[in-house]
């Protein structure tokens, strides 16, 4: 078995010398345990694996599971629950002809982050204006499409014009703004003549301050992530709080596992929308366990369109 270990704490973007791949001899599988072999890795700490040996009747040989095992080729486990509140490994239902890798993306944590994080916190109404940052990524591309399904006007923010074309032409977002465009602020104003009712925020920082400034009274902001700040060493000035006060905005952060008891609801709904042709998904697949770190750094720098995964 092989696994990644951290040699040195990251200083800014992760470097190849910060992590090391080591070989390890696994012990025999004990009662209550099973052995899982990684098939796909998500370049966050999630992976999909197939069970190759088992002494645990809840996790039979041949089943595919999703579990937070880290970046490793083989893992012996009891199935969890895992540290920091992560739930048990879950067995993938019949994929019904869809690719198994979708269970790391649109039919897994990524899809549920979009489904619950947007619908439960933004509570969108038909005709409202929705802005999504990180719009061409795994979570953001699904949020925008769900907003269209709910009858909203959708504006996606992402970092390249090629991503913008994909959002508008393929995913049917109404508009796109490149946050690297020096006229970002003016374009946002131009495209939101009636203000912004819902903001799904994946990135934080300056982009979010500009969007907050366009929010309507009683607007709702779902704070999913703040990727623009993840590699910062110091806390920088945050959002413009005066907008939150003056417009009586509701801003709420979430952790997707707070909806663990409804997990399959999100997955089944996203699956139905895929089958009805209402939800499209894209994956950026990197091949080879030894390229996992590269895939991770590429994702942090915008190299992915849709969900970033590694095929072992
Ligand atoms: P993505 O597929 O969206 O990949 C990250 C994207 O972020 C990149 O493609 C890049 O696209 C964009 N990005 C990178 N740096 C910046 C920057 N400085 N400013 C603006 N955009 C930037 O990742 P995920 O879909 O996996 O995750 C999206 C967000 O959701 C993350 O913040 C993640 O932490 C969060 N998350 C939160 C969960 C929760 O429970 N709260 C659960 C899962 C994810 P571009 O080319 O547009 O720059």
Give the strand tally: 15
What characteristic shape results from the CA principal axes? Answer: globular
| CATH architectural name of the largest domain | 3-Layer(aba) Sandwich
Structural class: alpha/beta
Number of domains: 2
How would you name the CATH homologous superfamily of the largest domain?
NAD(P)-binding Rossmann-like Domain
Main sheet properties? 7 strands, mixed
CATH class of the largest domain: Alpha Beta
EC number: 1.3.1.48, 1.3.1.74
Pfam families: ADH_N_2, ADH_zinc_N
Family: Belongs to the NADP-dependent oxidoreductase L4BD family.
Subunit structure: Monomer or homodimer.
Describe the overall structure.
This protein has 312 residues and is α/β, with parallel strands linked by helices. The protein has two domains: 2-92 and 282-311, Medium-chain alcohol dehydrogenases, catalytic domain (Quinone Oxidoreductase, Chain A, domain 1, Alpha-Beta Complex); 110-256, Rossmann fold. The protein contains eight helices and 15 strands. Strands 3, 4, 5, 6, 7, 14 and 15 form a seven-stranded mixed β-sheet that branches. The chain has a six-stranded parallel β-sheet with strand order 10-9-8-11-12-13, sandwiched between helices. Strand 11 (196-201), helix 5 (205-213) and strand 12 form a beta-alpha-beta unit. The longest helix is centred in the middle third of the chain and has 14 residues, at 109-122. The two termini are 12 Å apart. The mean pLDDT is 93. It binds NADPH dihydro-nicotinamide-adenine-dinucleotide phosphate. NADPH dihydro-nicotinamide-adenine-dinucleotide phosphate is lined by residues 44, 109-110, 113, 134, 136-140, 158-160, 163, 179, 202-203, 224-225, 227-228, 254-256, 299-300, 302, 304, 308. NADPH dihydro-nicotinamide-adenine-dinucleotide phosphate binds next to helix 1, helix 2 and helix 8.
């Amino acid at each position: 078995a092989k696994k990644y270990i951290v040699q040195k704490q990251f200083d800014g973007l992760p470097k190849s010398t910060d992590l090391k791949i080591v070989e390890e001899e696994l012990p025999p599988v004990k009662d209550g345990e099973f052995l899982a072999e990684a098939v796909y890795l998500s370049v966050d700490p999630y992976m999909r694996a197939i069970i190759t040996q088992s002494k645990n009747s809840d996790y039979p040989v041949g089943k595919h599971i999703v579990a937070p095992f880290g970046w490793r080729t083989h893992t012996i486990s009891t199935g969890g629950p895992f540290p920091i509140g992560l739930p048990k490994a879950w067995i993938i239902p019949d994929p019904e002809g869809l690719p198994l890798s979708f269970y790391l993306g649109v039919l897994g944590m990524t899809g549920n982050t979009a489904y619950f994080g947007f619908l439960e916190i933004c509570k969108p109404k038909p005709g409202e204006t929705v802005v999504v940052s990180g719009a061409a990524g795994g979570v953001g591309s699904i949020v925008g499409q769900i907003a269209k399904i709910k009858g909203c006007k959708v504006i996606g923010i992402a970092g390249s014009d090629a991503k913008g074309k994909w959002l508008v032409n393929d995913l049917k977002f109404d508009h796109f703004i490149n946050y690297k465009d020096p006229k970002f602020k003016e374009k946002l104003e131009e495209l939101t003549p009636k203000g912004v009712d819902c903001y799904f925020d994946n990135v934080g920082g300056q982009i979010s301050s500009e969007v907050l400034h366009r929010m309507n009274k009683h607007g709702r902001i779902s704070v999913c992530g703040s990727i623009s700040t993840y590699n910062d060493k110091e806390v920088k000035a945050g959002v413009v709080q005066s907008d939150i006060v003056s417009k009586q905005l509701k801003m709420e952060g979430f952790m997707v596992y707070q909806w663990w008891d409804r997990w399959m609801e999100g997955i089944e709904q996203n699956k139905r929308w895929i089958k009805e042709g209402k939800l499209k998904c894209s994956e950026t697949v990197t091949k080879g366990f030894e390229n996992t770190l590269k895939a991770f750094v590429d994702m942090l720098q915008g190299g992915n369109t849709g969900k970033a995964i590694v095929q072992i």
